[in-house]
Structure formats: structure tokens, C-alpha cells
């Protein structure tokens, strides 16, 4: 079976590292970026995206919409944020799910696994 590709776009280096470790431990292929611009320049897609709403430059919400509009496949996008309105913001950006900060690796893995199982 082909590895599931996950892209994380999160500006907090500690959180980005923790999410990467948790997902790699589950045998996912993970690439991470600290900002939307760096992700947009590399141009590769993924099966699932985890995007922070508050990024420098292009916002996570705009990035989510770009990914949804430009992809031929149906990638899953999970938005993450400490914003109390995360669920509404994610829905407006056409994200598939939202995960409020702070969260632990179990919360993250549950969200990811649920979407992969549904795909």
C-alpha cells in the first residue's frame, strides 16, 4: 500500500516538530513548512493537509481555499488554531475539519485516522 502523504503548515517550530513525530511514528510520509509561501513554491500535493490558520504572509484560510480549488483529487484539510471560532472559520474556508489548540498527539491522530478511514 502506498504511504499516505501529509503536509503540515505551521509556524510554531515546536508544534510542527511534535506533529511530525507523531505522524511519522504512524508510518505516514510527512513534509512540513513554516509558512504558506514556502509550501506554494515547492508545488507538491498531499493526501491530507494540516494547516494553522494564523500564518505569516498568506493566511491558512486562503491557503486552504487555494488547495481545494487547485487540486484534482479530494485532499483532506484539517485547520488548526487557538482561535475560539476555529470551527466556523474552517467551514468558511471549505476545510474538512478543525482542531482547536491546544491539542495532544492523540487528538491529532484521531482526526487524521478518521479522515483516512473515510477516504
UniProtKB/TrEMBL annotation:
Transmembrane segments: none
Domain Response regulatory: 5-116
Database matches in InterPro entries: Bact_response_regulator, CheY-like_superfamily, Sig_transdc_resp-reg_receiver
Pfam families in the cross-refs: Response_reg
Top-level taxon of the source organism: Bacteria
Gene Ontology process terms (BP): phosphorelay signal transduction system
Record bears the keyword Phosphoprotein: yes
Modified residues (4-aspartylphosphate): 52
Keywords per UniProt: Phosphoprotein
PANTHER family xrefs: RESPONSE REGULATORY DOMAIN-CONTAINING PROTEIN, STRESS RESPONSE REGULATOR PROTEIN 1
Descriptive protein name: Response regulator
Amino acid at each position: 500500500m502506498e504511504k499516505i502523504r501529509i503536509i503540515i503548515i505551521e509556524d510554531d517550530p515546536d508544534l510542527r516538530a511534535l506533529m511530525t513525530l507523531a505522524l511519522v511514528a504512524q508510518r505516514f510520509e510527512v513534509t512540513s513548512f513554516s509558512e504558506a509561501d514556502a509550501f506554494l513554491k515547492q508545488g507538491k500535493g498531499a493526501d491530507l493537509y494540516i494547516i494553522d490558520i494564523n500564518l505569516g504572509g498568506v493566511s491558512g484560510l486562503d491557503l486552504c481555499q487555494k488547495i481545494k480549488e487547485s487540486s484534482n483529487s479530494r485532499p483532506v484539510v484539517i485547520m488548526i488554531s487557538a482561535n475560539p471560532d476555529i470551527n466556523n472559520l474552517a467551514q468558511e474556508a471549505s476545510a474538512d475539519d478543525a482542531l482547536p489548540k491546544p491539542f495532544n498527539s492523540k487528538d491529532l491522530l484521531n482526526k487524521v485516522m478518521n479522515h483516512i478511514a473515510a477516504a
